Amino acid sequence: MTEAEAFLQRVRAFPDDDTPRLIFADWLEEQDGGVARATFIRVQVALTRLGDEADTVRDRLRAAERDLLDAHREEWTAAFRGLATGLEFRRGFVEEVKVAARPFVRRAHELFAAAPVRHVHLLDAGSSLDAALRCPYLSRLTALTVYAQHAGEPLARAVAGSEHLSGLKALHLGRNRLEDDAADHLAGSAVLANLEELDLAENELGETGAAALAASPHLGGLRRLELGGNRLGPAGAEALGASERLAGLHRLGLRGNEVGAGRLYTLTRASELLRVPELDLSANGLTAAGLRVLLTRRPGPAAVRLRDLDLGHNAGLGDDGARVLAGCPHLAGVRALRLSDCGVGNDGARALAESPYLDQLATLDLSNNPVGDPGFRAFLDTPHLRSLCRLTAPTLGVSSRMQHALDARFRRGPGLPCPSPTGGYSPGPRHHGPER
Fold first, then answer.
1. How far is the C-alpha of 229 from the C-alpha of 116, rounded, in Å?
2. Could you tell me if 384 and 401 are in contact, meaning their C-beta atoms sit under 8 angstroms apart?
3. What is the DSSP letter of 1?
4. Rounded percentage of the chain residues whose pLDDT exceeds 90
5. Cβ neighbourhood burial of 297 (10 Å; 0-12, 13-18, 19+)
6. Rounded distance, CA 199 to CA 334, Å?
7. Secondary-structure breakdown of the chain: helix, strand, coil percentages, each rounded to the nearest 5
8. DSSP states of 22-49
9. pLDDT recorded at residue 301
10. Can you give the pLDDT at residue 27?
11. Which of 12, 14, 19 is nearest to 115 (CA)?
């Protein structure tokens, strides 16, 4: 074993600990040609340790990271040539790779000897899927992606039955033709008890599958659940929102699940969705009447925790939907409201601007709506919306003069003060999430 390999072995043995990586960087700095790699390790470790207030430092470190990778990527990824693609560095080492299932089965020992790999994207699964999911090296992973393999129920069964996946924190199985029986396998698997993120988007899950996930005794640690592009319907959405087993969810993605269908009006616990801090209900055929069902009742025993609400591409909301939002006291804690392509006009915009309940709102997206200068003038005149820092207006229908006025007042970057209703600037809460 070479001296370098001894250092690498310790990095692989303690992949969550920065100390072996930084010790290796110190050693590299003393070797011929090792300064760049040592610097790169330190830069990436430093990036993971930055707080929210370090925007200038972050930009400088990102630039250094990019320059070092541009200059040395070929050298630093040579061990993966012909073995894996899609290489992503984390904290100075390759931790994420894409590899076909058959070579993964044959050469997993080489792959995991080359770096502390934590996230594998399995490609071209085919007949090698079962063998790949029985590979003992999977026990080193914290994330697994099997995307668009159209593998169906056998994939879910193999994942649920793999004794080597108990360390997973993230599992992505999008676009695999998974149906309700697949959800049953996943929900019943004790192997997945450590999951914090589960992505089952663009499958064929229905109400029964949603109910299985909601009732799972093993998925209580989930923080993010992505189910966009399925067919859960309103009852499936309600089951997830009302689930006591999933009480720790921070994000629930329900884009394109027909939540606005007729059955929504017969439900009694749909408002339980307001317990989820980040909720995506975009492209669900919602109308103003549907919003009333979701927003007018307070969630039963739990407090409203909603902070980020995406209602984009629900063209039936219109001005009436905007009025429902503006008049809803349950939205008093919402920081981001996304209403792109919702048919909101000038009257709806005025209602939002004059809402007494949206003073915590930091981000408002009204892009692709028929709102013009009369509607946006209300935003310049309102005594409300004191925290609004990012207002996205349509690219058409708004005069350049109005756009300039809106940009000057509301399109403030992170770390800059929010506008006050008097035209000056007063300190306001910052929004650190990505602008969509």
1. 34
2. no
3. -
4. 88
5. middle
6. 24
7. 40, 10, 45
8. HHHHHHHHTSTT-HHHHHHHHHHHHHHH
9. 64
10. 97
11. 12
State the CATH number of the domain containing residue 176.
3.80.10.10
Residue 224 and residue 317 in one domain: yes
- The whole-number pLDDT of residue 427 equals 29
Q: Would you say 105 and 84 are in contact if contact means Cβ atoms under 8 Å apart?
A: no
Q: Taking Cα atoms as reference points, which of 121, 116, 81 lies closest to residue 101?
A: 121
219/358 same-domain check: yes
**For strand 336-338 and strand 390-392, is the pairing parallel, antiparallel, or unpaired?**
unpaired
Supply the range of the domain harboring residue 7: 3-76
Q: Is the dihedral of CA 379, 382, 384, 387 positive or negative?
A: positive
Which residue matches tokens 């929010």? 418
Q: Answer yes or no: are the C-beta atoms of 240 and 264 closer than 8 Å.
A: no
For residue 139, what are the contacts with CB-CB under 8 A and spacing of at least 6? 164, 165, 166, 167
Structural domain includes residue 108? no
DSSP letter for 134, please.
T
Residue 435 within any structural domain of the chain: no
pLDDT for the residue 22: 97
Which of 118, 127, 132, 217 has the alpha carbon at shortest distance from 169? Answer: 118
Model pTM score: 0.91
Token look-up 């700095």 returns: 29
pLDDT at residue 67, rounded to an integer? 98
Q: Which residues contact 268 (CB under 8 A, 6 or more apart)?
A: none
Cα separation, 63 vs 47, in Å, equals 11
* Phi, psi values for residue 44, rounded to 5°: -70, -35
Is there a contact between 348 and 373 (Cβ–Cβ < 8 Å)? no
For residue 407, CA distances in Å to 55, 335, 350 come to 21, 19, 18
**CA-based nearest residue to 43, from 76, 95, 88, 91:** 91
Q: Tokens at residue 109, please?
A: 């020992």
Low-confidence residues of the chain: pLDDT under 70: 1, 53, 300-302, 411-436
